Amino acid sequence: MKKHLLYAISAICLSLTSCHKDLPTELAFESYAYASLDVDGGTWRPVLISAASDLEIAEPAATNSSEYQAELTATKSAIQQMSDFQREKLAHWTNNPVVRWNEIALELIAKYNLIPGPNPDGTYTLPNPASPDGPPAFPFAHPPYASRALAYLSVAQFDGLISAWHYKYHYQRPAAYKVDPSVPFAYQEQDIPAYPSDGAVIATASRKILTAMFPLEAAYLERKEAEHLQSLLLSGEFVKSDIEAGAQIGDQIAVKALARASADGMKNAQTSKAVSDSIANAAFERFGWKWVNLESPQRPVGLTPLFGKVKMWNVPNVEATRPGMPPAPGSAEYEADVKLLQEYAAHRTLERRKIANFWQDGLGTYTPPGHWNDFANRFIVKYKMSTLRAARTLAYMNMAIMDGGISCWDAKYYYHYPRPIQQIEGFETIAGTPNFPSYTSGHSVFSAAASEVLAYVFPAEADMVRAWAEEAAVSRVYGGIHWTFDATVGTQQGRNVAQYTIDKARTDGAD
Amino acid sequence: MNFYSKCQTGLCVLLLALSCHAWAQSPTDELMMPHREICFLGSYEYGQFDEYWEGSTLRDNATIATVQRRTALLMAAYGLTNKLDLYVGIPYVSTNSTLPNGGKFAGTSGFQDYAVGVKYQAFKKATEKGEFSAYASLNFSNRASDYLSDYQPYALGLGTPQLAWRAIAHQKWSNGLYIRAVGGYVWKGYTQAEREYYYNDGSYYTAWMDVPSSWNYEAVLGKWFLANSLRVEVGYSAQRSTSGDDIRAYNAPQPTNRVNMDRVGGFAHYYFPKVKGLGILAYFSQVVDGKNAPKMTGFGVGATYQFRLLK
Lengths: 511, 311
Hints:
The structure holds 2 protein chains of 2 kinds.
Chain A: H1 2-17, H2 66-80, H3 84-93, H4 97-112, H5 143-171, H6 176-179, H7 198-213, H8 218-234, H9 240-262, H10 273-287, H11 332-346, H12 350-358, H13 367-382, H14 387-415, H15 420-423, H16 442-457, H17 462-478, H18 484-506
Chain B: H1 2-16, E1 37-49, E2 52-54, E3 57-59, E4 67-81, E5 84-97, E6 108-111, E7 113-126, E8 130-143, E9 162-173, E10 177-188, E11 190-192, E12 198-199, E13 203-204, E14 208-210, E15 214-225, E16 230-241, E17 260-271, E18 278-291, E19 297-308
Antiparallel strand pairs in B: 1-4, 1-19, 2-3, 4-5, 5-6, 5-7, 7-8, 8-9, 9-10, 10-15, 11-14, 12-13, 15-16, 16-17, 17-18, 18-19
Keywords (chain B): Signal
Protein name (chain B): Transporter
Organism (chain B): Algoriphagus oliviformis
């Protein structure tokens, strides 16, 4: 017993000494030399605009002009007066702020991924973009919402950076620290022209897109943008006009991205009860079944019944990726799956529980699309991608994820297939059953679509990311909220959808 | 919810306040085991709640309906010397929601946290009117199984090492009336979730969650009856976490929450005069106010048996 106590006390001492360790709140990395500079990046095919030069900035002043020299003096003096706080922020933003703005998006998704609860009278009030304060606050950043926010963010960054690359190598105005070697540079030295600042493109485009997606965060996002723009100046790479030109590009591309967003059909995705009922009844007449929400009090409308009608990025027609019919209740395949689910419920092994929880990404988290962005960020840093390459990776991945979500939601509300708790008497789950039909599994489609794009961009990781996607898919079966065929068919659906995006990526000029 | 387990922590305080005979027991009371005597406690407790505080707002939630929690506890206390006692204990817990409920979540069960503690009698003085004594105790607990602390509101416990330091003051009068005051600090470490990201007023890219430590207080009024064979107490206890976030709207709690609570309770312990060493006990407790805590009602019964272990 004394030995036990000794062990306990030493364990405590160990935990106490490690007790003040900082838990990571962001991906840890420092500035690095890009694996490729992509001098021809300005010729790549963008997504929203027809060419890099569609976004316009003025011709910069020459470095020997008095105008430039005055800006250079201002950069130097700002660096000399840098505060400790500013120095800390300089290290935080690094020379790949694409990752940092993606993390801001993930944080806001997790903050707003809260499902509205019932009112005292048993009714539900939905978030309203016209009065975002709520309650409930707008938005409810559920997985389809998250996939869309991330897609617009990444696409705007990508197009903006293609444009920035075009002008950088067109005007060839060198970085401040190259013009004047006495200017200290905070990051890795690389031979990239400074006009316009790519960081400023990212800062302004990201702030504008995220403000539209998370209107209550306008002030927070403005602070982040100002802090980032200030860091760009303090890095020693840019003078004021480099940063202003970058911000102009960011501003212009955000306007174009948000114009697409306002007309993509998302505002009609959450329907009235009448429309929702008619969708359910159409499925019932077609198939003889319909999904029913079993929450208490019952939610009158499922989540975004018409998300399947939202405009896709790279799939010409959503029905081209609609999977075949699921097994009818009562069929042999269906009954076998009921048995399997009951078996999992009766024997909740530690391994299956861990898989169910690892991939759950449920309410209050950054959602499955967010999880795959988290993975992508780690690969981006591991493979030392430039801002341009990083934005390209995230743009294609997030377009494929959003297209996957649209295709999945099309299947969900077309087939309107019931969840296991609706079909199996007394069935209980270890994951929360979501407010939408079962077939196909959103996790499966999101994950397969994301993993295919990552496998294309990072071929050395292909086997691993595809295995992750399959584990994410089956995790929902282990959690008790999906049928096996929801997961397997959903995985194939995600792969099919991603292929459209990958075909486009292969011909954009970057490979 | 974090709070289910926090509650358990609190209930442990109450359970550990049980006493085996005219001497004996727990890190939170004044009773000491005589040298080389050992006392065993077996108890069963039922607790339930259908309301909880989300931040400071009391609410119900049809997703979880009424949450039930059953605890079987086995404890032992041993007198290392007349002034130093050693304690060990382990609870087995099972949780579930009543039917019908909107969430259809499976309950869970298993061993919660083992506890090892010592209590030292630092001061004792008899006067004409009674007796004053003071004690210090140290209690360590940690998970005894692979339960998931992040499975709220059904989690068995907090899944973190805990170290509780307590100071106890006790005044007893010759008519059998007594009061006891306990103040303590419970350091709680990190618990490991089964996910690599969570939100706690910002993003955390780790499975490790910082479980808030807490200050815990207790005030008890009691009396001995029937020639010292019946002890009856009423008490108030409180927990104040030193950090943590609030449960978010209509969202599941998590181990990082700031859990505060105020609880009242009653306790009785009867020692059979004719069966040496045997006692039975019963208690009741009710959480009356809180923050990020369940409004838990609990009652329990148990038996104690004390004997000399070494001659």
